[in-house]
Design brief:
- The complex is a heterotrimer of chains A (about 750), B (about 290) and C (about 160).
- Chain A is built from 19 helices and 28 strands.
- In chain A, the strands form seven sheets. A seven-stranded mixed β-sheet of chain A has the order 3-5-1-12-9-10-11, with helices on both faces. Chain A has a six-stranded mixed β-sheet with strand order 7-15-14-13-8-28. In chain A, strands 16-23-24-27 form a four-stranded mixed β-sheet, sandwiched between helices.
- By secondary structure, chain B is of the alpha+beta class.
- In chain B, the strands form four sheets. A five-stranded antiparallel β-sheet of chain B has the order 4-5-10-6-7. A four-stranded antiparallel β-sheet of chain B has the order 11-12-13-14. In chain B, strands 1-3-2 form a three-stranded parallel β-sheet, with no helix packed on it.
- In chain B, a hairpin with a 2-residue loop joins strand 12 and strand 13.
- Chain B is globular, with a radius of gyration of 19 Å.
- Classes of the chains: A alpha+beta (about 750), B alpha+beta (about 290), C alpha+beta (about 160).
């Protein structure tokens, strides 16, 4: 359904749209990480009279991008806290003139000392946010952690770090805004969450709900990178539109998008684990910290998910998880597929291999010994109440990857071959839907409407950006009503026309929103059945005819469904305990790598991705989600390094920020299992983010297997491998000098 | 897009003589642009200092490959696609055909030219090490006439060349004398395609009577200009390829190169990999002997 | 336009775009990508990076695949240009487009026009490419959504289904 316009070039993204009399907008941004603004001057060579210029004082409402907190300004007002922070906005009819105009604005600062690392933030080298640089902290406790150490045969410690990762949607951020005194503000853009923007604009512009309208255009990739950031660019376009009285389009170029917008939170995880003689985890302490950048934005929620996933798919009889999101003078970090879980699961899955090594069992065995079983509880004491058999899942994945035979062969060949080969395992879970009471607070509403022509239309604010939202939600409605796929359409997400079905995040769309679509659709059917228009069985054409006549007779024919938290899902927000998610999807990934002895480059030669996902509603789309996520995970592991200088991304061009090309990847072999899910549409679980969690630890575990050297960070580049092997060789030589060496 | 098109002038006279005449009128004013794969990136990012350009794209005089009895003459306007697919180049100068395939992506190979690669003079340029080991000559043309210089003298310093302000490269000339050589080229980048090289090697070797009769090694991205590893070559000339020699060559090469830390890689990594590439080549040379 | 800029001269370019002869007045250094999108309203060709890395701006110029973000308008003079909008008429392209739909090769769709141009170009030269040849042929087109596999499958399937003309 999404496809035909896309393969013919007819799909309309925001930069494909023009409005009469439209101006183009651009942003003057901070060049320093932290300081006070002393003066702004407008240089020679530009006719400033022709420009619309907006500053913080032009903001009618509150100067903030409302999200969890209001701490992030829309435009800097006297103070900047990160490089690329927006200070002024410019608009002009000539698109090509704007970059020159931006360069011609000179801002003089009184610089203040800035901090760029988790360690500097913790040490309070500078206090840059609140009283202690801490945006949020969580404590998760289970059992009795203080009692486990004395009986532990092994105490295993490790520290694991992950770097920032750029979402790199191929379509840059963009917005068009138009203001009309009567209608209010309308924005069209590349975005995931229309109602987030709606809420932010209401506060910024001091407008009521019915005078703010947000419309999603075809969106060229998002992955979380267009969850919260679009509110900022929408705010900017809106302010220019209001001041100029004309429509304004802002489209970022790649350099600006990379430098100024959100990235995955860098993280540091410390594990200290008490393990029995035979490898059973008795318990542990996990210290999980993420770098949130300069403002709070979504960091508390990323932190929450990372903290809850920190114990992974294993039984922790006792655990203490301390989690913290801290402030630095970098552009705020934000949502990116996985949302904290890839970070904490990388640490955990690396740590499991370390535990295996200390205990003296295999990577496979350590997992078997500690897997969660039905009837046991997670770190937040959520009961595993479905018949998941992780041992069987692991067995199947190893079988599919030819693990044991290859392990033997590699071990033998690595003795003499320059190219070292290895295998790595990651076993993990991903909670689908919002955490805890999140869905209850959202109270998502979904509509299904019968149209005058007899077709049925789905009304949701859930957005399509490549994951197949439109296809699957229409498929669900068609299935619920016994209609053909061609009888069902879906309205463009437009806050003026659709109810708020919540943001398109957290792998919730098929599962949560889909289930509501099912209910809403059944509402249409029930109305017709109750009035005797249709019986128990009917044809699609009969259904359509009845819809047509109902609309003709009664007008709007719409059924709404609202989310209600299932009775048996309890979550304690204070103690951070209980059922964190409606359901988990489970997975085992196996990576096979080889390392080139000449270049130290890692090649992923085979990859098996096996996951239990409730029910596969659309095989082609599901496979596409897994493969796409695995490739992003491989990028996270081996290629995607953000190079920072004084808090600014230095390699903000596609030439220098490296993602895999088609020539860099093996076939990703994808397999599914289906246990069903009572909370999801037709038994489906959310799977959009799951594939992001496994590849990095599986690949780094495999590299460790190949080289006999442990790496505890990503991205892991050939340079890092070289330096580590070189250090190790120097150490070995110092201990055992090779005879006859020159 | 950070340049305003109205600030730039681009002329396309359509023939070599007209272009050369324009360059002579006002030496240094007109910047020649062929396929634009380097210059248009600079332009787009707002970093092209030149404001007046003259198009040399698709000039018939520059786009011929002449297969002459003793040498091959490649028009400077030939694209990398043309180089890759030319049977004489594949046969006689395989290192150049290989390098042409390294240029990022088919679309860029269709527009990037050998002349542009040379004049842009990036030390990371893919085709330049091959030209060094092949002892290529350049035919430079201006209104003052034509001159032929060894390519090895073309690069004076980082992005500084012998090209006079009124000159163009007309052709690259390579003598056909390498059919007995074993040839290998290898590029090390951040990924398998579309990558600026961290290190690259073009190598030719010939073994006769069990010893190295001739060896030529050139590298990119390890010095301000493409580098011929003459010290390493000296250590290898006339020797039998054995483990101790391979280790010596590795160490000599790693010390001979002068790489830097930059946004793509580190000096130590580049030096080590440079040494490894040489060692690998020697092992391949020994295994393949005098076979091509 | 402001007075303080010295205006570079405009030039006239004539070329065929999707089979239609067209003449325009443009600045010679206008990017061909911008001419297509803004002068001709052919918005199917996309800008993803502006530096010739992502391939979203791929078009055929005289039958050859090029990144239109790197082509100055003057160099397109007298050429024959095919964009995604013009590709639908070519029978080989229809099979390819259908294969993309069947294999799930278009997710968000922003890379898709360029990908289809590159694949079409490949199939014209190599009607039955191997997986490796497809991967190499598409290596200049970046996709962030699919991980490439379903795109490669779509191209392979088109190749298997018969030569494209």
């Amino acid at each position: 359904m999404e496809g035909r316009d896309k393969v013919t070039g007819r799909a309309r993204y925001v930069d494909d749209m023009e409005l009469p009399d439209m101006l183009f907008g651009a942003t003057v941004r901070s060049r320093i990480p932290r300081g006070r603004i002393k003066q702004i001057s407008f240089g020679a060579g530009i006719n400033w009279q022709e420009f619309v210029i907006v500053s913080a004082k032009d903001i009618p409402g509150k100067n903030c991008i409302a999200l969890i907190d209001d701490d992030q300004p829309c435009l800097a007002d006297g103070v900047v806290n990160h490089p690329e922070e927006a200070i002024l906005l410019l608009a002009h009819p000539d698109r090509h003139l704007l970059p020159k105009a931006v360069e011609a604005v000179t801002v003089e600062y009184e610089p203040l000392p800035a901090i760029f690392s988790i360690e500097d933030s913790e040490s309070r080298a500078q206090t840059i946010w609140g009283a202690d640089n801490i945006f949020k902290s969580y404590l998760i406790e289970k059992g009795d952690v203080d009692s486990i150490w004395q009986n532990a045969a092994h105490i295993v410690e490790g520290e694991y770090t992950t770097g920032a990762q750029e979402q790199l949607y191929i379509e840059n951020n963009g917005m068009i805004a138009q203001f009309d005194v009567a209608k209010g503000i309308t924005v069209w853009g590349s975005l995931q969450c229309p109602f987030y923007i709606h809420k932010a604009l209401m506060k910024l512009l001091d407008l009521p709900a019915d005078r703010v309208r947000v419309v999603q255009m075809e969106t060229g990739g998002a992955f979380g990178g267009k969850e919260e950031y679009p509110s900022m660019i929408a705010a900017h376009a809106a302010l220019l539109a209001i001041k100029s009285g004309k429509p304004v389009k802002i489209i970022y170029d790649r350099m600006e998008d990379m430098a100024a917008t959100t990235k995955r939170h860098p993280s540091r995880t410390r594990h200290r684990t008490a393990v029995s003689k035979d490898g059973r985890i008795l318990g542990g302490e996990i210290d999980f910290v993420i770098d949130g950048g300069a403002y709070k934005t979504l960091s508390p929620v990323v932190l929450s998910r990372g903290a809850i996933h920190a114990g992974g798919a294993y039984l922790w009889p006792s655990v203490r998880i301390r989690a913290k999101a801290v402030a630095t003078n970098m552009p705020p970090h934000g949502a990116f597929r996985g949302f904290g879980a890839p970070q904490s699961l990388f640490a955990l899955e690396r740590h499991m291999d370390r535990i295996a090594e200390v205990v003296g069992v295999s990577a496979e065995e350590i997992r078997r010994i500690n897997f969660l079983r039905t009837g046991q509880t997670t770190t937040t004491e959520q009961l595993v109440n479905e018949p998941i058999d992780l041992n069987k899942l692991l067995h199947r994945a190893l079988d599919l990857s030819g693990y044991h035979a290859k392990k033997k062969r590699f071990a033998a060949n690595n003795q003499r071959d320059g190219h070292k080969k290895g295998l790595g395992i990651a076993t993990f879970l991903h909670g689908a839907g919002f955490t805890g009471s999140g869905e209850r607070f959202l109270g998502s509403v979904v509509g299904v409407q019968a149209c005058a022509d007899g077709s049925v239309q789905v009304l949701v604010s859930s957005t399509e950006f490549g994951q197949g939202t439109k296809t699957v939600l229409c498929q669900i409605a068609a299935e619920a009503l016994g209609l053909r796929y061609s009888d069902v359409g879906i309205a463009q997400p437009d806050t003026g026309n659709v109810p708020n079905s919540g943001p398109t995040v957290a792998s919730r769309t098929v599962m949560v929103v889909g289930k509501l679509v099912q209910s809403a659709a059944l509402g249409i059917k029930q109305t017709l059945m109750i009035s005797g228009k249709i019986g128990d069985s009917y044809s699609a054409d009969e259904f359509r005819a009845e819809c047509r006549s109902h609309v003709a007779e009664h007008g709007t024919f719409r059924s709404l469904a609202q989310y209600h938290q299932p009775e048996n899902i309890f979550w304690d927000d204070e103690k951070y305990r209980g059922s964190a998610y409606a359901t988990f999807a489970w997975a085992v990934y196996v990576a096979e790598v080889s390392i080139d002895p000449v270049t130290y480059a890692v090649s992923v030669d085979d990859f098996v991705a096996l996951q239990e996902v409730g029910k596969v509603l659309h095989p082609v789309l599901a496979q596409g989600q897994i493969i796409g996520g695995v490739v992003q995970g491989i990028g996270f592991a081996l290629y995607e390094k953000v190079i920072w200088k004084n808090g600014r991304m230095e390699n903000g061009q596609m030439t220098n920020y490296i993602i895999p090309t088609s020539a860099d990847l093996p076939s990703i072999r994808v397999y599914f299992e289906e246990l069903g899910n009572v909370h999801g549409a037709y038994g489906a679980k959310g799977i959009g983010e799951l594939p992001m969690d496994g590849p990095a630890p599986a690949v780094v575990n495999a590299i460790g297997d190949a080289l006999g050297v442990s790496f505890n960070f990503v991205p892991l580049l050939p340079e890092d491998i070289f330096h580590s092997l070189h250090e190790k060789a120097l150490q070995d030589n110092a201990l055992h000098p090779v005879r006859g060496e020159r | 897009m950070r340049a305003h098109p109205s600030e730039y002038q681009l002329l396309a006279p359509g023939s070599l003589s007209e272009v050369v005449s324009l360059l002579a009128q006002d030496p240094g004013k007109w910047l020649p642009i062929a396929g634009g794969t380097d210059l248009m990136v600079q332009y787009s990012t707002g970093k092209l200092p030149a404001r007046n350009l003259v198009s040399i794209w698709n000039l018939p005089e520059l786009r011929q490959i002449e297969n002459l009895p003793g040498e091959i003459r490649i028009g400077a306007g030939c694209t990398f696609t043309e180089l890759r697919n030319h049977s004489a180049i594949q046969r006689e100068f395989s290192l150049l055909a290989t390098a042409a395939g390294w240029i990022g992506g088919i679309a860029n190979q269709n527009r990037g030219t050998i002349g542009g690669n040379i004049v842009n003079a990036s030390p990371a340029a893919d085709s330049l090490p091959a030209l060094l080991v092949y002892d290529a000559d350049l035919l430079l043309v201006s209104q003052r006439g034509q001159r032929r210089i060894p390519y090895s003298t073309f690069h004076v310093d980082y992005r500084k060349t012998q090209l006079a302000p009124d000159e163009l490269i007309r052709a690259v000339c390579i003598t056909k004398q390498f059919s007995e050589y074993y040839a290998r080229a290898r590029k090390v980048g951040a990924r398998n395609a579309q990558a600026i090289s961290k290190v690259c090697l073009a190598a030719l070797g010939r073994i006769a009577s069990g010893v190295i009769a001739d060896i030529r090694l050139a590298m990119g991205s390890v010095a301000p200009v493409p580098l011929r590893l003459t010290a390493t070559e000296r250590v290898l000339q006339g020797k039998r390829v054995e483990p101790a020699l391979v280790d010596l060559a590795r160490a000599t090469a790693a010390a001979e190169v002068k790489p830097i830390d930059d946004i793509r890689s580190t000096a130590r990594y580049r030096a080590a990999v440079a040494g490894n590439l040489v060692a690998e080549f020697l092992q391949q040379l020994r295994a393949n002997g005098t076979a091509k | 336009m402001t007075d303080s800029w010295q205006r570079g001269a405009m030039c006239e370019i004539s070329f065929t775009i999707n089979g239609q002869a067209t003449t325009l007045q443009v600045h010679p250094m206008e990017r061909l990508l911008d001419v297509l999108r803004h002068e001709l309203q052919l918005t199917g060709t996309k800008e993803g990076c502006g530096e010739g890395e992502c391939g979203s701006c791929s078009i055929l110029m005289d039958g050859t695949l090029v990144n239109s973000c790197l082509v100055p308008a003057l160099q397109a003079n007298s050429s024959s240009i095919t964009t995604i909008e013009g590709l639908t008429d070519e029978s080989g392209a229809k099979a390819l487009q259908q294969a993309f739909l069947d294999c799930g090769a278009a997710q968000c769709g922003i890379c898709t026009p360029g990908m289809i141009l590159a694949a079409h170009h490949l199939l014209r030269k190599n009607p039955r490419p191997s997986t490796d040849e497809i991967r190499e042929g598409l290596a200049g087109n970046l996709c962030r959504c699919t991980g490439y596999m379903q795109i490669v499958e779509a191209v392979a399937e088109t190749g298997r289904g018969g030569a494209s003309k």
